[in-house]
Amino acid sequence: MGLFRHSLLSILVYMIIGLCSSYQSLANGANTNQTAKLLVNAVEGSGHRASETLFGLFFEEINHAGAGGIWAELVSNRGFEAGGHHTPSNIDPWSIIGDESSVILSTDSSSCFSNNKIALKMEVLCDTTGSNICPTGGVGTYNPGFWGMNIEQGKTYKVVLHVKSLNSVSISVSFTSSDGSQILATSNIIAAASDVLNWTKVEVMLESQGTNHNSRLQLTTTRKGVIWFDQVSAMPMDTYKGHGFRRELIEMIEGLKPRFLRFPGGCFVEGEWLRNAFRWKETVGPWEERPGHFGDVWMYWTDDGLGYYEFLQLTEDLGALPVWVFNNGISHNDQVATSSVSPFVQEVLDSLEFARGDSNSTWGSVRAAMGHPQPFDLRYVAVGNEDCGKKNYRGNYLKFYDAIKHAYPDIQIISNCDGSSRQLDHPADLYDFHIYTSANNLFSMAHQFDHTSRAGPKAFVSEYAVTGNDAGTGSFLAALAEAGFLIGLERNSDVIGMVSYAPLFVNSNDRRSFQMAGAISNGFCLKALLLWNPDAIVFNSWQQYGTPSFWVQKFFAESSGATVLNTTLTANSTSSLIASAITWQNADDKNNYLRIKIVNFGSNSVSVKISVDGLASNSIDSFGSTKTILASVNLMDENSFQAPNKVVPTESLFEGAGIDMDVVLTPHSFTSFNLLRNSGKSSITEVVRPVEYVSSS
Ligand code: AHR
C-alpha cells in the first residue's frame, strides 16, 4: 500500500512535471510525426525582386535611446535648460559638492547663448586661506550623466565648457567615481580674471587612469569667488566614425545591414502638444546654441545634441537612406488647421533644403558649415506619425504633398493611412503600417498582405513588434512570432517596400510605455504610463545586448534587393509553419546564395522534405552551406546583461545541403538554410524536377 501510494504520488508528480514541461520545455521529446513538403521554385526568371530598401531601422528618441544612448554625450542637462526658462530653476541632475557654508549653486539668465539663457552660478564661500578653508578636493558641482558615466582606462575624453568670472580662477575638471573618492582623470583650468571676464570657451582633454562605469564629471575649486558655467559637454574621443555616436551600439545596428533609418520617432515627432514636438531647426548648428526640449510623450528632456544633422550623418555612415518623419501640424492633443498650416510646410521645405540643397543655399549653407558640404541622400519623408484618423490629417497631408512634390518631385512621400485593405483616398508613394500585438496574432498576420492589391503604393511596415504578456522584456516567443511575420512580409515584398521593428533601443534605466490593450494598427499613440517593452537592443552606460527580436532581424540582413522565390508548403496536418526563400549575390565574395527560412511556431517537431526546382543537381556546394537556428528551452526565455547570449542564433555546417533535403525542424524554432551555389554551375542547364507551381502559400 505504502509502495502503491508512493508510486501514485510519483506518477502524479511526473504528470505535473510533464504537463509543465510540455508547456515550458521545448527541447526534446515532442511528437515528431508531423511531416511537410516545401517546394522552392528557383527556375531562372521566376520570383520577384525585393525592394533595395526592404529592411531597415526605426530610431525613436524613446527610453533615452538617443540622449543617454547612442549619442555619446556624457553630460545630462549640459546647458542647465532642463529646469525651464525661469529662474531659480532646478539644475538636476547636477548636484553640489560641499555644503551651503562653502558653496551656493543657483541659476540666472546670464548665458551668452541667446537661445538658451540659463547658466549655472557657483558662489564659492570658502578659500585656501582664512577662517573658512575649503575642504580637500574643493567644492563645486558634479554631473552624474545618464545613470553614471562610463569612463574607461586609457581612453581620452574631450570636456568643453563655457566659463565666466570676475576674478582669476583655478578649476579642477575631473572624472571621479560616483562618490568622488576615486579620481580617474583630472586637469586644472587656471586663468587670469582678464581671460574669463567675458564668457570663454575652454577645452580640456582627459585621459583616464582607471575604469569606472558609474563615474561623474566634477568642476571644483578651492578658491573663493563667483564662477558661472554654461554648456558643459564631455564626449569620448572614440566614437562611431568619429561622428559622436556610441560605437558599440551603432556597430550592433550596422550588423543588421540596414538599408534605411526612419527617424526621429514616432510619437516623439508629434508631441503630446505641438509646443513640445520635435522642431528640426532648433537641433542644428553649433551644439551650444541649441535650446534643447522636453519631449512630453516620453517625458524627458533632451539637449538635442543628437539633432536633424546628426541623424542624417548617422544614416550616411551606416550606408542607409534617411526616412525623415516630420511633424505635420498635428500632435496628440492639438492640431493646426489646414488653412494655417503653411508655416509648417515651409519649415519642412527648409529641412529638405538643409539636407539636399546646394551649399550656397540658405539652409544648405548651414549644413555645409556643420561639416557636410555635399548634400545628404534624402529620398523619403513621412508626413506625420499615426495621424491618419485625425481631423486635419488629409487636409494638411495634401498641403505637404503638393509642396514637396513641386519642389522635389523625386522625393517619396509616406502617408499615415493604411492602404493594405483598401485603396488610399489621397496620393502617396508608400503608406505606413504599424502593428503591436500578441504572438499568436502577429504570427497569423504573416498573411496580412497576401490579398493586398498589387497596384498602388507599397506598404512601409514601419513599426511592428509583439508586445504585452507574450513579450516580457524581450522574449523568445515574441521573436519567433516576429520571424513568422517577417517571412510573410518577405513573401509579399512585391507590395511591401520597407520594414522596421520598433522600438530599437532602451536604456535599461528608463523604460517607457503604455499598457497594451490588444492590437494597435495605425491607431493613435497612447500616452506613456510606465514602461515600453520590449525593444531590440538593451543597454546601460557600458553594456548592451540584443533581445531575441534583434537576432531575428539578422536573418533578414541579406533580403533587401534579393530575389524572392515562390515556395509552396504542404503539411500532413494543420501546421504552424511558414517559409520563404531568397537568392542573392554577396557583394564581397561575389558568391551566389540560396537561403531558405522556416519558422516552426508549433510545439511538434516537423520533418520537412525540401525540393529546389530549377537548379542542377550539382549546383549546391554542401561544404560551403550552413544552417542557422534560433531556438530556446523556454518560450519566455530572454537575454540579459548577465546572460546576453542565452537566446542567440547558432550556426553549423549543413552537410545535407542540396536540391533535395530532408530536415527536421525542432518545435518552436526559426531555421535558415544558407546554401552556397556552385559558381559556374548554377545556371539551369538541367532542370531536374519540373513541377507545376500553384500559387505560393
Ligand atoms: O514605438 C513606440 C511608439 O509606438 C511610437 O512612438 C508610435 O509611433 C507607436 O505608437
Automatic annotation (TrEMBL):
**Matching Gene3D superfamilies, A to Z?**
Galactose-binding domain-like, Glycosidases, Golgi alpha-mannosidase II
* Principal localisation: secreted
InterPro entries, A to Z: Alpha-L-AF_C, ASD1_cat, GH, Glyco_hydro_b, Glycosyl_Hydrolase_51
Q: Which domain of life is it from?
A: Eukaryota
Q: Which reaction does it catalyse?
A: Hydrolysis of terminal non-reducing alpha-L-arabinofuranoside residues in alpha-L-arabinosides
EC number(s) per UniProt?
Answer: 3.2.1.55
Q: Which SMART domains match?
A: Alpha-L-AF_C
Which EC class does it fall in? hydrolase
Pfam families (alphabetical): Alpha-L-AF_C, ASD1_dom
Signal peptide coordinates = 1-22
Which keywords are on file for this protein? Extracellular matrix, Glycoprotein, Hydrolase, Secreted, Signal
Question: For the Alpha-L-arabinofuranosidase C-terminal domain, which residue ranges apply?
Answer: 462-669
Q: Name one GO molecular function term.
A: alpha-L-arabinofuranosidase activity
| GO BP term (any one) | L-arabinose metabolic process
Chain segments annotated as transmembrane:
none
Subcellular location field: Secreted, Extracellular space, Extracellular matrix
Homology family = Belongs to the glycosyl hydrolase 51 family.
Its name, as the record gives it, is non-reducing end alpha-L-arabinofuranosidase
